[in-house]
Design brief:
The complex is a heterodimer of chains A (about 110) and B (about 120).
Chain A: E1 4-7, E2 10-13, E3 19-25, E4 31-37, E5 44-50, E6 53-56, E7 64-67, E8 73-78, E9 87-94, E10 104-105, E11 109-113
Parallel strand pairs in A: 2-11
Antiparallel strand pairs in A: 1-3, 3-8, 4-5, 4-9, 5-6, 7-8, 9-10, 9-11
Chain B: E1 4-7, E2 10-14, E3 19-25, E4 33-38, E5 45-50, E6 56-59, E7 62-67, E8 72-77, E9 86-92, E10 105-106, E11 110-115
Parallel strand pairs in B: 2-11
Antiparallel strand pairs in B: 1-3, 3-8, 4-5, 4-9, 6-7, 7-8, 9-10, 9-11
Classes of the chains: A mainly beta (about 110), B mainly beta (about 120).
């Protein structure tokens, strides 16, 4: 089945220790998004890629970086995680060539910072 | 102007009842209005979506009502079931090709509990 896969599902890291979260998709979608979702809140868009074009949201901290080496994979790098970065991180994909920009979400990675 | 306001924050409904969640927006450029369902520990899943050229869309027990002049849209869940207990997010985006690449503006979410 075509899908959005996130690894790992749960990640524990220490304060200040770099961490990388990964997302892969078999949908062959042009657009990939990274969201941060804290408890009982709506997902917050961090950035997205349209093919290789990177689009950063204005309020995304510099601590968050992303890489998209090919269509299928996208990575979220947190350079120096703080306690406030503990959250669920969601990857989503979309294709502008379909009828709509329907976004397909992965299951998320729950990040804990100790 | 980019906000989407969602109410209520939480909702308790008896099994078999109707659940109604409301959203309002300001930006008239929005042209795509999806509803997402999210269970604890899972990613959001698209439930149903509507474009402003129709006033209602129904899929099974789920109906979106859309009022363009009032800039409001709502989700109705008929015959609500305990399995519908989840958090529901409304969203809006400018979906036309080349229009901000479909970035979703989410409401704050409604936690629905359906009691048996």
């Amino acid at each position: 089945d075509a899908m959005v896969i996130q690894n790992p599902r749960y990640q524990v890291t220490q304060f200040g220790k770099p961490v990388t979260l990964s997302c892969s998709q078999t949908l062959n979608h042009n657009v990939m998004y990274w969201y941060q979702q804290k408890s009982s809140q709506a997902p917050k868009l961090l950035f997205h890629y349209y093919d290789k074009d990177f689009n950063n949201e204005a309020d995304t901290p510099d601590n968050f970086q992303s890489r998209r080496p090919n269509t299928s994979f996208c990575f979220l790098d947190i350079r120096s995680p703080g306690l406030g970065d503990a959250a669920m991180y969601l990857c989503a994909t979309a294709s502008p060539f379909a009828n709509s920009y329907e976004q397909y979400f992965g299951p998320g990675t729950r990040l804990t910072v100790t | 102007q980019q906000q989407v306001k969602q109410s209520p924050q939480s909702l308790i409904v008896q099994k078999g009842g109707i659940s109604i969640i409301n959203c309002a927006y300001e930006n008239t450029a929005f042209d795509y209005f999806p509803w997402y369902q999210q269970f604890p520990g899972k990613g959001p899943a698209l439930l149903i979506a509507i474009r402003p050229d129709v006033s209602e869309k129904k899929e099974g027990r789920f109906t979106i009502s859309f009022n363009k002049s009032a800039k409001q849209f709502s989700l109705h869940i008929m015959d609500s079931q305990p399995g519908d207990s989840a958090t529901y997010f409304c969203a809006a985006s400018i979906n036309a090709y080349g229009g901000s690449q479909g970035n979703l503006i989410f409401g704050k979410g409604t936690k629905l509990s359906v009691k048996p």
